């Protein structure tokens, strides 16, 4: 059982809260039973180590069984050790280390996708995690992240996805021009979500076609160059007194409206 929070093994795991360590090692951190459960169910091949307190294993016996099926032994650790490893104050008794498994942009667009989310310069980890989760729930084929978007393996992003990071392909560090070219080559219409765009309701019917949504930065949206590359820019109507919608909320609406249109068609 690991009991020393200052041991080299513990420190190596704790370093994964830093982007430089994740980039150098190709690993990332998972915290809590939900993240571990989804990784074991959907991508057990990516898991390297699973650490847990004895009490957490008692509360979640299914995780031990899933780990054994994946050929992994759960390493027992004290609360102090898990606290030293984790990015959060309370990691719920379970911390795991997994290999990053980004998909190439070529593979993302190779299988005639119908719904994809492209994130350009999305900087807030919570927003990106929620967009990944919403895309997963809406049945999107993949997520494409441009080079200026926050690292999807940031612990806050991983937590915000609640496991969706393991459910659909994610392409990382893609040039926006390349992503749009690939989308067009795959027969997709690129639709930008932008407050200066046309009324969403006037183009709702066109969303039944293969669509790649383009979402921009939380503060200043998409720049003119990005907008010029899109086939269409749409804005969501505001019926109340709110100044605007949060990026992740707006993205969720756009993705779900597209999913509805495509399934109705």
Fold topology:
Elements: H1 8-14, H2 19-25, E1 27-31, H3 33-42, E2 47-52, H4 54-59, H5 61-69, E3 74-76, H6 79-85, E4 94-99, H7 105-108, E5 115-119, H8 125-137, E6 142-146, H9 155-161, E7 170-174, H10 176-185, E8 189-199, E9 211-215, H11 224-229, E10 232-235, H12 247-264
Parallel strand pairs: 2-3, 5-6, 5-9, 6-7, 8-9, 8-10
Antiparallel strand pairs: 1-4, 2-4
Helix pairs in contact: 1-6, 3-5, 8-9, 8-12
Total number of helices? 12
Strand order of the largest sheet: 7-6-5-9-8-10
CATH architecture of the largest domain: 3-Layer(aba) Sandwich
* SSE series: HHEHEHHEHEHEHEHEHEEHEH
Stretches where pLDDT is under 50 for at least 5 consecutive residues are none
What is the typical, i.e. mean, pLDDT?
A: 95
What does the radius of gyration come to? Answer: 20 Å
> What's the count of strands?
10
Shape: elongated
Share in β-strands: 15-25%
CATH T-level topology of the largest domain: Alpha/beta knot
Helix vs. strand class: alpha/beta
Range of helix content = 25-40%
Q: Could you tell me how far the N terminus lies from the C terminus, measured between alpha carbons in angstroms? A: 56 Å
Under CATH, the homologous superfamily of the largest domain reads: SPOUT methyltransferase, trefoil knot domain
Family: Belongs to the class IV-like SAM-binding methyltransferase superfamily. RNA methyltransferase TrmH family.
GO molecular function, one term: methyltransferase activity
Protein name: RNA methyltransferase
InterPro entries: Alpha/beta_knot_MTases, MRM3-like_sub_bind, Ribosomal_eL30-like_sf, rRNA_Methyltransferase, SpoU_MeTrfase, SpoU_subst-bd, tRNA_m1G_MTases_N
């Amino acid at each position: 059982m690991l009991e020393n929070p200052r041991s080299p093994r513990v420190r190596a795991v704790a370093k994964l809260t830093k982007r430089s360590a994740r980039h150098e090692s190709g690993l990332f951190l998972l915290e809590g039973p939900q993240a571990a459960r989804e990784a074991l169910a959907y991508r057990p091949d990516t898991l390297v180590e699973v650490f847990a307190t004895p009490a957490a294993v008692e509360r979640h016996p299914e995780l031990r069984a899933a780990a054994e099926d994946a050929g992994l032994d759960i390493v027992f650790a004290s609360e102090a050790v898990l606290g030293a490893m984790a990015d959060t104050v309370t990691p719920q008794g379970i911390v795991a280390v997994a290999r990053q498994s980004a998909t190439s942009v070529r593979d993302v667009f190779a299988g005639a996708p119908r719904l994809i989310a492209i994130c350009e310069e999305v900087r807030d980890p919570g927003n990106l995690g929620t967009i990944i989760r919403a895309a997963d729930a809406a049945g999107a084929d993949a997520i494409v992240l441009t080079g200026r978007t926050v690292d999807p393996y940031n612990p806050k992003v991983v937590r915000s996805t609640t496991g969706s990071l393991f459910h659909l392909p994610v392409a990382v560090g893609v040039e926006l021009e390349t992503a749009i070219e690939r989308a067009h080559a795959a027969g997709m219409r690129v639709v930008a979500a932008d407050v200066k765009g046309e009324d969403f309701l006037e183009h709702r019917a066109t969303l039944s076609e293969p669509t790649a949504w383009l979402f921009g930065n939380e503060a200043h949206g998409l720049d003119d160059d990005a907008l010029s590359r899109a086939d269409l820019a749409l804005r969501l109507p505001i019926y109340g007194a709110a100044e605007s919608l949060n990026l992740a909320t707006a993205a969720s609406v756009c993705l779900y409206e597209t999913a509805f249109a495509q399934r109705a068609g």
